[in-house]
Amino acid sequence: MINESLPQSRLSRRGVLGLGAGLAALAGCRTQPKDPAPGSEPTARFVAPNYVPPDQVPGAMISDIDGVSPAYSQYPSEQAKSVTETPGSGAEVSTFQVLFQAPPPTNNPWLTEFERRLGAKINATFGAGDAYGQKVQTLMASGDLPDICFVERSAAPSVVKPMQQGAFTDLSELLAGSGIDAYPNLARLPTYAWKNSSINGRILGVPRALPLVNGVTMYRADWAADLGLAEPPKNAEEVKELLVGFTKGDHRGKSKGDCWGLATLGNGVSWAMEMFRVPNDWRLNDDGTLTNVIETDEYEAAINWLVELWKAGAFHPDAATLPTLDSQDLFMSGRIGLMPAGIAPHYRSMVPTLRKNDPSAEVVAVSPPGHDGGDPVVHQGGGYFGIAAIPSEVGKDQARLAELLRVINYWCAPFGSEEHTFINYGIEGRHFTYDDRGTPIAVDGDRPLTEVAGPSFLVQPLEAVFFFPGDDKAATEAQQAIAKAVPLSIENPVRSLISETDIRQSAALGQLTDDYLFGIITGRRPISQLAEWRERWRSRGGDTIRKEFEAGLA
How many whole angstroms separate alpha carbon 38 and alpha carbon 393? Predict the structure, then answer.
């Protein structure tokens, strides 16, 4: 993904589900400099909470590859309790949560039942997804923080400085190692989610876990067969042939000029970066220095290939500006041949909608090949979306802190448990019914969204497992695709580090990248301007960001 670290104050539900996932390890062990670089903070040694793997239940497929999420072909018929004692003491628990639906009703039966189960009165403040960043900024400025705050720092960069200054309780010592045993549902969260959501080695909240690699590419195998390309492409030249063929071919009733290989430049960039083995934002060199992605030879080679791809006509004509939702709609209407996206949007909505619109469509998962026929790399993402953080003032009371962690522990109930079913599906009969296979199916109308999905969104690991009702094969296919990708995946070596200059300048540097990258690909700028682009990036903050990250890694 391009500009993955660019802060965004606007969030969307579909965008959340399409986020990438990943594992950031602090690489190298070098001498600590006498003084940290201005704008950086000393990095503590991260100590992970102990991890408890998922239970083996009927329909469960547990991979033996670290970082591959469990998959489920069916919903457990026996839903065990994951919480045996009431978490709360009867006191009020205030929360700040992001809201992707219409506001919940004042008299919400789901909330009433949730409060009964928790033993706590929930007093929720919501920040709408399209105004989340501003809401967080206002909340932090007020100094009056709720007991549990949903914090997604990439969407609200203003929160990072207060986090570094101690606005939220440091849970590192409390939850590290066997400390997590008091909260067994939290112990089931993957280690990479804890590590990547930490800041400079410190655990400041409980993460909402996502898969380690959270993307998959679907392509029209039926279109490829019509072109005489029955096998997936094995190198960059074959990918180009396939994508150009998708644009110029005659596809079963679709008129020429109405279909394209790729919808957006971003989709092409994501494939090119992995085919040409481009680093994941930064490369950590053997001497402890960092090289930014745009400074590498691999990046230049990938751009040259994208220039050829644009000239050959593989992209939608509006690829430089086409919104993500519009590109997904084009795919679902049968007009795009190759579509990278998040696992959840593909298997939960995009592929089912395409097959509903065109039952004969043959769409399968495909991986980018190495440009030269070898292996590609796969870029890991964050592996989480936001954390549930407890303000430091609240956390000073150890009994209260333990109570709030018990509430969060309930919220993090594992897949198929009684608590998971209630939190994510609601009350049987009012919000969902079971089909003949025992799968919870939402009832018609707005109740499942406004009464359950909206107010329940916090840190439940809903997207951290593969389960797609209505498609028996989807969970297996998704898991197999990720099992193939994870061994090839590479981390961003500065994932959990903070650079103050990066926070201040990332929007401007992201725009600089868009201007040059899209300009070069589409022919508005010559490839020779890459040198100018690199120099401007360095002089406008890139070199300072590098130094701050290097100090954090030291």
Answer: 28
Does 372 lie in the same domain as 269? yes
Residue 491 lies in a domain: no
One-letter amino acid for residue 522 of the chain: T
Same domain, 287 and 257: yes
Q: Are residues 262 and 206 both part of a single domain?
A: no
Please tell me whether residues 265 and 187 are part of one structural domain.
no
CA 76 – CA 439 distance, rounded (Å):
8
Write out pLDDT tens, residues 368-421: 999 999 999 999 999 999 999 999 999 999 999 999 999 999 999 999 999 999
Above 70 in pLDDT, residue 4? no
400 three-class SS: helix
Q: Which residue has the tokens 């793997």?
A: 53
Mean pLDDT, rounded, of the chain: 91
- Angle at which helix 236-248 crosses helix 265-275, to 10 degrees, equals 160
Residue 521 sits in the same domain as residue 408: no
- Count of domains in the chain? 3
299 and 165 both lie in a single domain = no
136 and 98 together in one domain: yes
Nearest to 5 by CA among 164, 157, 160: 157
Within a domain: 222: yes
Alpha-carbon distance 152 to 154, whole Å? Answer: 6
Structural tokens at position 138? 């206002």
CATH number of the domain within which 271 lies? 3.40.190.10
Q: How far is CA 167 from the centre of its chain?
A: 25
Question: Minimum mean pLDDT among 16-20, 130-134, 325-329, 522-526: which range?
Answer: 16-20
In this structure, what token pair is assigned to residue 144?
């009056």
CB atoms within 10 A of CB 434: 14
> Under DSSP, is residue 126 helix (H, G, I), strand (E, B) or coil?
strand
What average pLDDT score do residues 267-292 get? 98
**What is the domain range of residue 536?**
500-553
Asked whether residue 326 falls in the same domain as residue 247, the answer is: yes
Indicate the SS3 state at residue 259.
coil
Confidence class for position 32, pLDDT limits 50, 70, 90: very low
Strands (E), 302-401: 338-342, 363-366, 378-379, 384-389
C-beta separation of 319 from 268 below 8 A: yes
What is the CA 260 to chain-centroid distance, rounded?
Answer: 27
User: Among 25, 42, 14, which residue's Cα sits nearest to residue 380?
Assistant: 25
User: What is d(CA 248, CA 270) in angstroms, rounded to the nearest whole number?
Assistant: 22
291 and 31 Cβ atoms separated by less than 8 Å: no
Tell me how far apart the alpha carbons of residues 7 and 120 are, in angstroms, rounded to a whole number: 34
Phi-psi bin for 479: left (phi > 0), alpha (psi -120 to 50), beta? alpha
The answer to whether 91 touches 58, Cβ cutoff 8 Å, is no
Cα–Cα distance for residue pair 489/380, rounded to 1 Å: 6
Classify 57 as helix, strand or coil: coil
